[in-house]
């Protein structure tokens, strides 16, 4: 198991310093890379993993890859930012084998690491903070190629800083074998589900993507997650709906459609089955807390 962890590879995409205002307001962001922030001034919010994170100065934040997120800033804030790809043996993700915090108070070295990374890679700034302008496969390939412009010293130092910063978010020192996804195909299917909750998803479709029979795929998925694929998809749709109810002003019908329910009544019944509350009651309760 340690050999898997030792194969961790981090690939820098972007880094820079940004001064942001209320235009920093983006919903339905699901990126194939990890984001990291060091806040220096002001305040903002990031919603992901069913939590709300109030971005505060002298704190660093982690948003894992393939995680639905929403970003908002009511007034103004300044941040150092980093985005990078991560993978381990067999193309899996470190987030499948370790537990992470997503917000930590920065120690005395963190600011230096962010500043040094920008200094080493001063041509890696994001020109437009809207994820739609850079969060796509062709543009990511252009970012990856920029690593070829680094010399050996710069590349090793860049990778060392990324590894050091990522390690600060890990909450346990032992690899959690219960969280290991034993099959790359199942891990990729998890990402596919996260990216496509707004659309119909069938088990036959998922099995075909893995080149497995439907029965074998279902058994392997159950062995990995302890839940049948259909129930897993449904639970992820409800999790996403809860976050949308909390972080947007979208109507119930709009939210239902965003998480793959064309029928509002069926969405409401399913939501109540999972949460013991109707969507409207859940939203009202959260707003008044």
TrEMBL record:
It comes from the Bacteria. InterPro entries: Homeodomain-like_sf, HTH_AraC, HTH_AraC-typ_CS, Tscrpt_reg_AraC-type_HTH. GO terms for molecular function: DNA-binding transcription factor activity; sequence-specific DNA binding. Residues 187-285 form the HTH araC/xylS-type domain. It holds the Pfam family HTH_18. The keyword Iron-sulfur does not apply. PROSITE patterns: HTH_ARAC_FAMILY_1, HTH_ARAC_FAMILY_2. Keywords: DNA-binding, Transcription, Transcription regulation. This is AraC-like DNA-binding protein. The lineage of its organism: Bacteria, Pseudomonadati, Bacteroidota, Flavobacteriia, Flavobacteriales.
């Amino acid at each position: 198991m340690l050999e898997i962890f030792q194969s961790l590879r981090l690939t820098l995409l972007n880094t820079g310093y940004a001064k942001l205002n209320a235009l920093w307001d983006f919903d339905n962001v699901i990126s194939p890379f990890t984001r990291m922030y060091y806040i220096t001034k002001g305040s903002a919010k990031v919603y992901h993993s069913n939590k709300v994170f109030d971005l505060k100065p002298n704190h660093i934040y982690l948003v894992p890859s393939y995680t639905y997120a929403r970003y908002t800033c009511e007034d103004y804030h300044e941040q150092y930012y980093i985005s990078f790809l991560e993978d381990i043996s067999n193309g899996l993700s470190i987030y499948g084998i370790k537990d992470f915090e997503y917000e930590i108070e920065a120690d005395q070295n963190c600011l230096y690491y962010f500043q040094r990374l920008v200094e080493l890679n001063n041509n890696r700034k994001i020109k437009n903070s809207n994820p739609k302008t850079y969060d796509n496969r062709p543009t990511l390939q252009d970012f990856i190629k920029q690593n070829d412009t680094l010399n050996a010293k710069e590349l090793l130092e860049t990778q060392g800083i990324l590894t050091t910063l990522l390690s600060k978010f890990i909450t346990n020192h032992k690899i959690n074998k219960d969280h290991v996804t034993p099959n790359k195909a199942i891990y990729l299917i998890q990402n596919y589900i996260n990216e496509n909750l707004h659309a119909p998803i069938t088990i036959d479709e998922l099995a075909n993507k893995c080149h497995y029979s439907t029965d074998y795929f279902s058994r392997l998925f159950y062995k990995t997650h302890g839940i049948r694929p259909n129930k897993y998809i449904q639970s992820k749709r409800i999790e996403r709906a809860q976050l949308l109810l909390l972080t947007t002003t979208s109507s119930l019908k709009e939210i239902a459609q965003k998480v793959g329910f064309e029928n509002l009544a069926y969405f409401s019944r399913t939501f109540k089955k999972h949460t013991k509350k109707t969507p409207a009651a859940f939203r009202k309760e959260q707003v008044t807390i």
